[in-house]
Every structure is written in structure tokens, then in C-alpha cells.
Amino acid sequence: MELENYFEFLDPDDIRIKGHRIGIDDVIAYYLQGFTPEQILQELPSLNLEKIHATITYYLHNRAEIDAYMLRLNRWREQRYQAAMANPSARMQRLKAIKAQREQEKLNLG
Q1: Are the beta carbons of 49 and 37 closer than 8 angstroms?
Q2: Which of 8, 56, 94, 108 has the fewest CB atoms within 10 Å, i.e. is most exposed?
Q3: What does 37-65 look like in DSSP terms, one character per residue?
Q4: Which pLDDT tens digit goes with each residue over 90-108?
Q5: Which of 55, 56, 52 is nearest to 40 (CA)?
Q6: What is the pTM of this model?
Q7: Phi and psi, residue 16, nearest 5°
Q8: Domain range holding 75?
């Protein structure tokens, strides 16, 4: 079986493990942190060892391309995070207000 058959290439910056919403970046991030395939399975129990090994093997065979993919993905996530922080939704603003109110109440009681 070809390694590519384990994945869904939804677009150049969205590669998922076939049959899952889990991206290859999730498995690779654990792998790069030093997790063994068995430890990755504990973190991502909906996968199986075959898919985890296929993802790691695909990464090792395409390291430069996948490193660039991971970098683009991390930059995109950081941009979305910064945009959300700069322009919080009404819901996020309400949650922040509730949190600030609770912290103030703790200070008033203490």
C-alpha cells in the first residue's frame, strides 16, 4: 500500500489521516516531542499504530516538505490567534468580563 493512501490531502495546507479529523501535524508534533508511537496512541486513541507508523514514515520520507507544511500551519494558527485576541468576539468579551468580576469578588472577600 502506498503511504499516501493513509491520508486525505484536502488542500496543500490541510492533510488529515484518512477516516479521521486528525491532521498529520498532530501525530508529527507528538513525534517531534519525543513520543513513541505507543505514547502517541495514548494521546490519540481513535487512531491505530498502523496509521501512526504510516504518518511518521511519511514524515521521515518527506521531511523538508512536511517541515515547511508544519511551519505554514503554525504561522496560520498564530495569525488566527492574534486576530482573535485583537478582535475578541462578543462571547469572549462576556467571558472575560465574568472572569474579571469573579477575580474582583475574590479580592473583596480576601
Answers
A1: yes
A2: 108
A3: HHHHHHHSTTS-HHHHHHHHHHHHHTHHH
A4: 888 898 889 989 998 888 8
A5: 52
A6: 0.76
A7: -120, 160
A8: 3-109
